[in-house]
Write a structure and sequence with these properties.
Number of helices: 3
Radius of gyration: 34 Å
Number of domains: 1
Structural class: mainly alpha
Helix content: over 70%
Order of helices and strands: HHH
Shape: elongated
Oligomer: single chain
Distance between the termini: 111 Å
Strand content: under 5%
Number of strands: 0
Length: 106
């Protein structure tokens, strides 16, 4: 008896879902005429969004530069310089300055 009640309720649920879905689907209008006008709050939102994204990208840049500085303590280098690393740029400038002083003219 219990299995028959469960089966009946599941079939009733299935039939109800199908009928409600059909009614909702057939009553939807076919054409959509949506017009969106830009309001001052939209312009303000766009400005705030652009400012936020630029600050996020700037923060990411600072993080990358900080990670590049860390590599000098973790992985000291002899002849290898990382691109856009401030510490490597200082080392290159110091090496070039030392070499400039040691070059003799003939």
């Amino acid at each position: 008896m219990f299995k028959k009640v469960i089966t009946f309720l599941l079939l009733l649920n299935f039939v109800t879902t199908l009928s409600v879905g059909y009614i909702v689907y057939t009553n939807v209008p076919k054409e959509y005429n949506i017009t969106v006008e830009a309001t001052p709050s939209d312009k303000e939102f766009e400005t705030n969004m652009r400012n936020g994204m630029s600050q996020l990208m700037l923060g990411q840049n600072f993080l990358n530069v900080g990670l590049l500085r860390v590599h000098h303590f973790v992985e000291p280098h002899v002849d290898m310089f990382y691109e856009n690393c401030p510490e490597c740029e200082k080392d290159k400038a110091r090496i070039l300055e030392e070499e400039k002083d040691s070059i003799t003219s003939k």
